[in-house]
Every structure is written in C-alpha cells, then in structure tokens.
Amino acid sequence: MSRERPRAARVPPRWIVRSAWVVHRAIYRFSGGRLGLTSPRPKYGMLRLKTIGRRSGKQHSVILAYYEDGPGSNLVTLAMNGWASGEPAWWLNLRARIRKRLST
Fold it and tell me: Concatenated DSSP letters for 12-30?
C-alpha cells in the first residue's frame, strides 16, 4: 500500500502578486470607485479599508477580500501579506491603533 505525500501549495511568484495589487488599485482609482469593490457573492466580496500609519500618521488604503459571517454583517478577512512572510502593514496599523486606544 503506497502512501501519497501531500502536495505543496502552489504560490504565485511575488512579482505576479504585486502586479495584481497595482492593477486592482488602478482599476479602482481610474473608475472613480465604480469598479474594483464588490458586495459579497456566494463566496466573498471586496472592500476598501483605510488605516492610519503607525509611524507616519498618514492615511493608507488597501483593498481586501472578505467573507460575511452570518446575517449580522460581521466581516471576516485574512491578515496575509500576499503569501509573503511577515504581517501586512494594514494589520500592524490596526493593531497599533487598537492598543493605543486601550491604553488611554
């Protein structure tokens, strides 16, 4: 009886991931916000999240995929950095902002 080894996940090269981000943001920007975001379909939707930089204090925005968790409109997203190591900047900014609010 032979055992099949699990296949390693195929991850796109970093340049493809970053290029997709650039194209997606450009579509959103040049369409005046009419394209690039979606309400949830059977699986997921796309949203634009604005955060304040934890070091710069400047506003940043990012487009994220999300799932709706039930009818109470709780939104769930993954804090992943396009399959790269490290946490995404938007997540670090949100976490720093929450910690700052809790400490005051």
Answer: --HHHHHHHHHHHHHHHHH
Q: Which residues, at least 6 apart from 50, have a Cβ–Cβ distance to it below 8 Å?
A: 59, 60, 61
Predicted model pTM: 0.72
Residue among 90, 73, 75, 68 nearest 21 (CA): 90
Q: How many CB atoms lie under 10 A from the CB of residue 36?
A: 17
Q: What is the pLDDT of residues 6-57, one digit of tens each?
A: 887 788 888 998 899 899 989 999 999 888 888 777 778 888 999 999 999 9
- Domain residue spans of the chain: 35-103
In one letter, which amino acid is 104? Answer: T
Show the tokens assigned to 37: 């975001």
